[in-house]
Structure formats: structure tokens, C-alpha cells
Amino acid sequence: MPPTTFLLEQRAGGVAILTLNRPARLNALTFDVYRELHDTFRAMQDQPDVRALIITGAGRGFCAGGDLNDVVAQLARMPSVDLLRFTRLTGQTVLALRQLRAPVVAAINGAAVGAGAVLALAADIRLASENARIGFVFPRLAERDPTPVAAGLLD
Q1: Could you report the per-residue pLDDT of 46-68, keeping only the tens digit for each?
Q2: Of 3, 47, 93, 118, which cross-links 36 as Cys (Cβ 3.0–4.6 Å)?
Q3: Could you tell me the end-to-end alpha-carbon distance of the chain, in angstroms, rounded to an integer?
Q4: Which structural domain range is residue 90 located in?
Q5: Contact call for residues 58 and 17 (beta carbons, < 8 A)
Q6: CATH code where residue 116 lies
Q7: Are 24 and 108 in contact (CB under 8 A)?
């Protein structure tokens, strides 16, 4: 079943191009995007016709990380069991990407922040445009109000 939250194109010669396609949000990840990325990477492990995977972002950004409205805001309110489930999904997504037999190229065309930086750094090769920026904002997110997140981890 083809993904609905990003574009996936199979080109001649075995090159697959995965384009994160939320340019108005700098391709920020939602819970649905995480699930489809995980499922797509797992499915590619059994596709011998995929000889290379290129990951990029539509518009001016590679990936701004977790969407502030769809993911980040909800994480602070999530019960610890759901937070743990999501954390495992993110780790399993990166693991599925790393386990691909085909080489993975991150074509970084703009900001790769937080989880977007993780995706870029999990690739085997990174090609960056002059507009590329890679960074982590996880500590700043905790500074906003660390209490809900910390309380959820201790439940």
C-alpha cells in the first residue's frame, strides 16, 4: 500500500526517492508520518528492486522534526505508556532505516532539526545544499515546561 503522508517514487535503476511532503510545515513529522516511515522502511527490506534510497524534503526544508502541534504538544500530555510506545516507534523507525541493505542518501535541502536531524544522520551518506542546517532542539523543548514530560517518564 503506497504511503499517504509523503511521496515515494521508484525510478529506473532501482533508485527510490522518498520526499517528505509538508512544505508549509517544513516537512515536520506527525504521528502518521512516523508510522508510515517505519512501515515503508520495513517493507523496503524485502524489496530487492530498491538498490538505493534518497530521502529529501519538499520545498525549502528537509525536516523540521516533530510537528509542534501534532507531536510535541501532545507528548507532554501523553500517559507514560503511550509516551513509551511512541518513543519505541521512533527508535524502531531509525533502526529500520539503518537496517536497509540499500545505501540511504539524505539530500538535505534546508533545515534538518531534531528528529529531522536524526533521520539525516541515520543515512549512510548526506549531501547538503548551501541552505542546509542541522541542529537539535530537544534541550530547549524541555526548558519550556519539563514537569509534564518528567512526570510522564516517572509514572
Answers
A1: 899 999 999 999 999 999 999 98
A2: 3
A3: 37
A4: 6-154
A5: no
A6: 3.90.226.10
A7: no
